[in-house]
Structure formats: C-alpha cells, structure tokens
Write a structure and sequence with these properties.
Elements lengths: L12 E6 L5 E7 L2 E5 H8 L3 H13 L5 H4 E4 L8 E5 H10 L3 H24 L1 H6 L5 H14 L8 H15 L24 H17 L14 H9 L2 E2 L2 E2 L4 H14 L7 H15 L14 H13 L5 H12 L2
Antiparallel strand pairs: 1-2, 2-3, 3-5, 4-5, 6-7
Helix pairs in contact: 1-2, 2-4, 4-5, 7-8, 8-13, 10-11, 11-12, 11-14, 12-13
C-alpha cells in the first residue's frame, strides 16, 4: 500500500484554517509565516474590528513586535488600494491580549503549519547539512534540547514560542549560508555601561510588586527575599578574576542575571517574573533592548518561553541556556 504523500506548503500559498464551530479563513503563507487581515483577526478571535485595531496599535507602540517587518501590504480583489496583512507574531500578540479557546486553537494550528514548513525546509537543505555535519553538531543539540523541553507540562501552549526561538536562533547564526565555526560559542560583543546595584534592583522589584498587587496578580510573598541570595546573585554578575570581569560582555551579564534569578530562587515567590523584568530592565538601561528596526530583540512571548525553559532545565544544561540567550541577543 502506497503511503499518501503529505502536501507541501509553497511560498505565497493560501492555506485553510477552520474549526468545527468557529470561523473558516483563507490564510496567506509567505516569508516563513502566516498572514491575516485585520477583519480576519477580528473574526478569528470573535472580537470587534475596533478592538483588534486598538490592540495592534498598542503592540506596535510598546514595540512588542516591530511594525516594519510584521505588516505586509497586498493587492486583493474588490479593493482599490493595498490591504494590510499582519504576521503570525502580531496575530499571536493580539491572541494573548484576548486569551480564549479560539486563540489557543489557532496557536496550535499555526504551530503545526510552521513546523511542516520547517521540516520541508530542512529536507530541501539536507544534503548541504550533511556535508557540514560537524559544524552543525551544536545546532542539532540545541534543536533536540528545545524539542525535549517542549514536551514538559509547564511548556504546554508554548509550542509556537519554541519554534520562534529556534527560528530566530538560526537566523542569528545565519546557519544555512555562512556559518563557519566548528562549535557554537558565547556571543561576546557589547560592553555593559550600566551597573545594576542591589539597592536599585530592590527598588525595581518593589515597584513591580506594588503594581502586581494593585492588579491582584501577586501576593505579599512576591519579591520577598529568601536569605541573602539576591544580593549574592548581583555580585556574581559582576565578579572578577585576576582583575578582569568573569562575564565580560553585556550579553553574558544579562543572560546570567535571567538564569540565576530564576534558577537560584532568591525570592519566596515570583522568581520567573522578577528575573524576566530585571532582564528587560538591565537591557533597557544599557540601550540594548531593541534592534535597529525598533523591535525587541527578545519579545515578551519569547521571554516567557525562555523563562520557563530555564525553570525546567537541568543545572547541567546551564551553559546551553546561556549560549542560546547570548546568541539571541547578539543579532
């Protein structure tokens, strides 16, 4: 019996999204992502178009997603001017702001579509990849690492974020074109001018705690220190050996700050949220949070996935996590 061939997704193809009781949409697949119009996003999440418009404007204003690379204008029938289409990053960001069963279903569907594309893309380049097997050894290990962690219960619903991390990771290293290193190394490019002292860090945590308590998203235990671990972590970020910084680059300091706060549990509650916020604060104070396009180097959804990955990772995998974070920041 012949095995039925799986249909390949081609550039500029329109794929169908439908649910049993939800909308049926023609989804444009192009440039390694899917695209929808504003009214289609509204239909997808069951919201008024004006609500979707407000969400999109806020997403671009907050620079959660870069506008330039995530809005695509196409000529369509019955329209006398180009119509704006929004990428999957925008659609997912809107979905998180209007969280619902529809949003979850769409994320799962989109993850499957992109996964199919990546598999076919890998197959096309398989010959080249085999020729460069030694050079890609650590990339394969990273892919395996992310795939394994994606099966963890805490990562449920994060499938798209894992794929996005992997996609951005590969782009950063330009692996399919000109990656010429035998092994993945730490990205050590930038110098950190801003120093995060303990007193200021405590004030930042206190500010976050106050805001979250006002929103009823945290208890009084949030940000409450567990012995003197937090101060020790900040000291570790700036520790020296032989008069030189042990972590020499801004990327290393930021990555270790995120890792240590999440993994060493310096607080009774809120370690992942505090770690993520201080990571963003540290990058922002060093003018290193955004790319030249104005888009965040690691957006909020990707940072959530990274934080969860750190939380579920084995301490022996620390170096791998640090390398992933530093390379994502180095673009």
């Amino acid at each position: 019996m012949k095995k039925k061939k799986e249909k390949k997704i081609k550039k500029d193809e329109i794929v169908i999204y439908r649910t049993k009781d939800g909308p049926k949409l023609d989804v444009h697949f192009e440039q390694e992502t899917v695209w929808l119009k504003q009214d289609e996003i509204a239909k997808l999440f069951g919201k008024e178009r004006s609500v979707i418009s407000k969400h999109i404007n806020k997403i671009f204003k907050d620079k959660e997603v870069g506008k330039e690379s995530n809005v695509h204008y196409l000529h369509i029938a019955k329209s006398d001017k180009p119509v704006a289409f929004y990428s999957l990053d925008v659609i997912l960001s809107v979905g998180y702001r209007t969280s619902s069963s529809r949003a979850i279903h769409f994320r799962q569907w989109a993850s499957g579509i992109l996964n199919k594309y990546l598999i076919h893309g890998y197959a096309i380049n398989k010959k080249y990849l085999l020729q460069a097997e030694n050079k890609f050894k650590e990339l394969k290990e990273t892919i395996s690492f992310l795939q394994t962690k994606a099966r963890h219960d805490l990562m449920a619903g994060q499938e798209q974020e894992i794929l996005t991390l992997l996609n951005n990771y590969a782009k950063t290293l330009t692996l399919l074109k000109n990656y010429d290193h035998n092994k993945l190394s730490l990205a050590k490019k930038s110098k950190a001018k801003f120093i995060l002292y303990y007193k200021e860090a405590r004030e930042v945590v206190a500010g976050v705690k106050k805001e979250l308590i006002n929103k009823r998203e945290a208890s009084d235990l949030f940000g409450q220190e567990n012995t003197n671990k937090f101060e020790a972590i900040l000291g570790n970020i700036y520790q020296t050996f032989g008069g030189k910084d042990l972590y020499t680059s801004l990327e290393e300091k930021a990555a270790h700050l995120l890792y240590f706060v999440i993994k060493d549990h310096p607080f009774v509650d809120g370690n992942k949220r505090v770690g993520a916020f201080l990571f963003v604060y540290f990058l922002d104070r060093n003018n290193f949070l955004y790319r030249k396009t104005g888009e965040k180097k690691i957006n909020d959804n990707a940072l959530t996935a990274l934080s969860l990955l750190i939380a579920i990772s084995d301490p022996k995998e620390k170096d791998k996590m640090i390398k992933i974070i530093t390379n994502l920041l180095s673009e």
